[in-house]
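Lab meeting, action items carried over

1. Structure of the two-component assembly. Owner: GW. Status: complete.
Input record:
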Amino acid sequence: MIKRIFRFYYEGFKSMTIGKTLWIIILIKLFVMFAVLKIFFFPNILKRNFKTDEERSNYVIEQLTNNPKK
Amino acid sequence: MEHFDLSLVNWSRAQFALTAMYHWVFVPLTLGLAFIIAFMETLYVKTGDEEWKRITKFWMTLFGINFAIGVATGIILEFEFGTNWSNYSWFVGDIFGAPLAIEGIMAFFMESTFIAVMFFGWNKVSKQFHLVSTWLVAVGANLSALWILVANGWMQYPAGMYFNPDTARNEMHNFWEVLFSPVAINKFLHTITSGYVLAAIFVIGVSAWYMLKGRNILLAKRSIIVAAVFGLVTSIFLALTGDGSAYQVAQKQPMKLAAMEGLYEGQEGAPLIVVGALTPGKQFDDDKDPYIFRIQIPKMLSFLGYRSGDAFVPGVKDLVEGGYTYVDKNGVEKVALSAEQKIERGKIAIKALADYTAAKDANDTAAVAYNRALLNDNFEYFGYGYLNNPKSIIPNVPLTFYSFHIMVALGFLFIGFFMLILYLVYFRQFNINKWILRLSILMIPLAYIASQAGWIVAEVGRQPWVIQDILPTVAAVSRIDSSAVQITFFLFFTIFTALLIAELRIMFKQIKIGPKEGGK
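Predicted assembly:
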């Protein structure tokens, strides 16, 4: 069964014409998104800066309650 | 609002808008073309006519190009949530998490499995199984959109949740209220239908190009028939769901409705502006006429917004100053608060949250209970507490007004266009003159403009809110360096523009090549 599924995809990719160009675009795009943008430009700030959900909650509460004009 | 870095807020908004608008360049064609292809393949399976198979495969190739270039562009938005909008991401909690997780799993399994069968499965699986796969790709793509639009609908009308002051998160208490919120349902139907109309116009436009060139005439004619019928039905449905959406806006986001219509002074029996131009520099509290000129339908805005021609529609000034009577969601008649009063209530709510947290730390149970009750009583105005000026609740009226009128005018133009094409097909035996064929090509960019204008109405019109009444955009943004946001803005601009150019080049090339051998 697994062999048949593999062959299905393998032959499908092999017989592609325009699809090869598209796959190259998809792979470059995913590489730029996940290996460059996500790692170097888009950290999840709360996950990166805090270890527990409690710390994250406290931080957001502080952000939300300190901001209004007193 | 002086505590906020407005440059940071504006760059973060610009970046999100840029990403969302580019993402939405790719999505609507996928949503609609998937169904058009499914109809074409159904005709192939029913008739056994090989020409339908050839037609299906041709449009499937264009679908594949659009899908491949557009796929995963929406993930960037999720990156931005975690980095630029971390307060917001935490605050929305599982309300956003659950729909997006369902979307991710469904999209992965349905699309990745059945798209493979759709593209690779010709001659390898039975006709019927292939057809089912094609339909499931269409349904799967649209179901993916459902979850995203449910999340967006919740931001416009936060239903089915309660705020947990211990975690600072909104928690879902009723999944079905979130899923079947009238705002979410109308938003979903209106948005996906706009994709269907856009795809129908795309198919007619490309087919018209073939007819102008005298190539692939049978493919062009058959494609035009399928797309025009699909387009007419869905464009009428689009108008109906547009009416449903506007009705919901009138009930839940009256300021957005006032901005859409440039209505500054509320009135009973309010007219609908069909065409108009706004007076530049108009302020809500000056005496200038809001319009340079207008053509209007008497009482129509009242009728569409409240299903009564004599109903009172509040204008921008009424919403800022309050004092008018309205019926709330429980059917109780109330006097509207002014923005200033709401701001005061919001500040009470925010202070109650701060005091609740302090009381909890001090183990002062009486103060905990008191502040929790105070927070609950005022939570519906929580977001107003971040605003310092009543004028802050007014969105960009000209941008909302013109976007809305462009969208509606083009929507009705599309209905007329589909009717014209079907008339020429059935009563003039495809005797379509060159000007109409050229017009058909011109319709393609117009469909994209209408589609983008719709999102501008939805998102600009709801400002200053990221979650209606509960969290303004200024409080949702992460405290990061605005220069970092500027850098990624231009980075995205470059990447998305490159993707768009790639899409257009490959798409044009493939259209020029046309379908594979064997056509008439």
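2. GW to write a short summary for the group page. Key points so far: Residues 262-335 of chain B form one domain. Chain B has a mean pLDDT of 92.
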